[in-house]
């Protein structure tokens, strides 16, 4: 019998790609998204349209519902009607800088919405909750590379604070109710169908339109760019392996430590190869065959200088390492961007 999964944020960048992967693997999927106007709603609609028109998609294995995470009644009804085996919770208000000027949106979606989803998982005996965290939880951490055992109690944006809160909520539900939870700390995801507010899309748009690219901290910024296909494969493997209470990992003293004796695991999902933003732009210039106009600026509020994922725990858990090189990933992204935007 095919596994049944709810994917929240199905019209989003990662949600779109993992939904297509699961449908290809014959999962039954209920997609949920509010299609808000944080960025171009037409892009979200085109993603849903693309899913619906994909091969192996029918009314029996794919259904989409538009709604808000804060709508507790709707969330309860969806879970009660669909009875999922697992949930991939990707819906959230994204963006670091937007959280500085619009804090309530993050509290409603990322805190209240997360609470509604995890409570519905508990009440419907869900066997596997996979939820999106973020590399932002590391805040001003100066330990490089970032390890899951590093402290996350110094967020520098409200967005990061809500993601840290999600991890704590999942830990509590896992401890109290033995709900299997897997939190994935994503590191700078890029690729086809990406979010327009993220650096790769902004860079590509500016280069093609011959507009200046704003590069902050005067170019002294590094990001652990991770291609979307690698992110999707990591999520897919986690679908097949719910968290359990017996996962051991090495701490900084090289001693084996039990993960609080509850089925909750947090994993970095990154490329483990931080790249200077100027180097990323240079490769993108080569692929687009257009020189970029670079405008170096001071660091922005809420930004971190470098992200770098230690993925040893991810490797140990699902035997996975990313396979897409930066040059290959940027080439695929640039080809899609030119085709999609004409």
List keywords for this structure.
globular, alpha/beta, 15 strands, two-stranded parallel ribbon, 342 residues
Report on the architecture of this protein.
By secondary structure, the protein is an alpha/beta fold. It is 40% helix and 18% strand. It has eleven helices and 15 strands. The protein has a seven-stranded parallel β-sheet, with helices on both faces. A two-stranded parallel ribbon has the order 7-10. Strand 1, helix 1 (13-24) and strand 2 form a beta-alpha-beta unit. Helix 5 packs parallel to helix 6 and helix 9 packs across helix 11. The chain starts with a strand and ends with a helix.
Annotation, overall tally of beta strands: 15
The rounded distance between the terminal residues' Cα atoms is 42 Å
Q: Which spans of ≥5 residues are poorly predicted at pLDDT below 50? A: 249-258
Query: How would you describe the oligomerization state of the chains in this entry?
Result: single chain
Tally of helical segments:
11
Q: Which shape, going by the Cα principal axes?
A: globular
Order of helices and strands: EHEHEHEHHEHEEHEEEHEEEEHEHH
Q: Kindly report the average pLDDT value.
A: 92
Strand content: 15-25%
Task: Please state how the strands of the largest beta sheet are arranged side by side.
Answer: 3-2-1-4-5-6-13
What's the gyration radius in Å? 19 Å
Helix content: 40-55%
* Largest sheet report: 7 strands, parallel
| Structural class determined from secondary elements | alpha/beta
